Amino acid sequence: MKLRFKPYELQLKHAFNLATSSRTTTPVMLVELEHEGIIGYGEASLPPYLGESHETVAKFLGKIDLSGFNDPFRMEEILDYVDGIEAGNRAAKASIDIALHDLLGKIMGQPWYKIWGLSPENTPNTSFTIGIDTREVVVQKTHEAAEFKMLKVKMGLDNDKEMVEAIRSVTDVPLCVDANQGWTDKHKALEMIHWLKERGIVFIEQPMPKEQIDDMAWLTANSPLPTIADEAFQRIHDIPKFKDVYTGINIKLMKSTGMHEAKKMIDVARTLDMKVMVGCMTETSCAVSAAAQLSPLCDWADLDGNLLISNDIFEGVKVVDGKVILNDLPGIGIRKI
Predict the structure, then answer these.
(1) Is 205 annotated for ligand binding?
(2) Domain around 297
């Protein structure tokens, strides 16, 4: 197999404002794996707060030697080898995993949801993210997202209620909230959750700092809404310790090192009776479509990363009336534009 990669910069349609940062671009690394003339595409999304960059990914990918793997179907061995090269580098590892899945699906002539035996009609609605902003911009973004059946509201600053009230002034669709670790007092957090429940919020994602495990467990035990872990966990071995800390988990390929471990994560979460959400970073349709292959297994989806950018170079998964729509293209379901 031949490995190629090149850096790319995603341009956001709007500034992406979180409780702790703001940006208008996101660096990604685009990856290709070629075997006997068939090319699989992958991607590493590199939002700065995760600690990976074009430089670190290029350095990691430069260490990979696939000359010893003549059979791309030896997925377990290949991904174990890649994972063992160096600790961390989760997005870099995900780019290889995604490209390998795309390659194998193309060789088999089937999309991964069919290979896994999943029903495409079981895909959930996806939320569309409204970042922290002024009332006027929030209202504008809400109007632009009129086709979506659920909206995701970023929170964690001192204008949380204003954000919700601005959205509620123009729509009554269900909302989910992502505080991005922005609430530090468990009692105030619980009070806020009760206020949010009265306004049609469905669940709360990462309400408190990931280090406040005892406070988070108390909050989940007393919360009238499900709580979902995001920043608190990364990989499969993290899940069991959060069974009584959060109601569910948000799986992202850039954290899980790709589709292979993400599928296993879902299985583990279900055995622990936890809810499952599949999410994304700001990504092209490559990584978003890869994650979407898993979506029929999930309670919720937040797969709008490709919809937030203006320079996507792939076509893939679509959103129609707010619902994730999978296509029949083999592999991860994309074509290069």
Answers:
(1) yes
(2) 119-336
Structurally, the chain folds into a number of domains equal to: 2
For residue 156, pLDDT beyond 80: no
211 assigned binding-site residue: no
Just list the catalytic residues: 154, 252
Residues 200, 308 share a domain: yes
3-class SS of residue 233: coil
Whether 194 and 279 share a structural domain: yes
Question: What's the confidence (pLDDT) of residue 20?
Answer: 62
Query: Which of 81, 113, 145 delimits the end of a domain?
Result: 113
60-68 LR contacts (CB < 8 Å, sep 24+): 60/85, 60/86, 60/89, 60/92, 60/93, 61/3, 61/5, 61/29, 61/31, 61/92, 61/95, 61/96, 64/3, 64/96, 66/1, 66/2, 66/3, 66/33
Q: Is 80 annotated as a binding residue?
A: no
Q: pLDDT tens digits for 117-146?
A: 999 999 999 999 898 888 999 999 999 999
